[in-house]
Design a protein that fits this description.
By secondary structure, this protein is of the alpha+beta class. The chain has helices at residues 19-22, 52-77, and strands at 3-7, 10-13, 26-31, 34-39, 45-48.
């Protein structure tokens, strides 16, 4: 459940233990109490919702950091702590 990034009020978390639910590398984006789950592979919204403007930021961030996210996913599923990834506002 580590938070791996934060930007523009959006928290990005990686819950690798629920891989059985989503069947792929994914992240959870939380903004003002709302949560959306996105595929790391293509930025597809898997479940939930956040405001449209924040959704666009998350999808862009995934595109920019896909390689880092996949590396973090591998660390996490192998029991290692994922690295922090820069947000869009850094």
């Amino acid at each position: 459940m580590p938070t791996i990034s934060m930007f523009y009020g959006i928290l990005i978390r990686m819950f690798f233990r629920d891989a059985e639910k989503h069947h792929m590398p994914h992240i959870h984006a939380e903004y003002q109490g709302k949560v959306a789950v996105y595929s790391v592979l293509d930025g597809e919204l898997l479940s939930g919702e956040i405001p449209p403007g924040k959704h666009k930021l998350v999808v862009a961030w995934i595109e920019i950091h896909r390689e880092d996210l996949l590396a973090d996913w591998e660390l996490a599923v192998n029991g290692r702590k994922p690295f922090q990834i820069k947000g869009l506002d850094q």
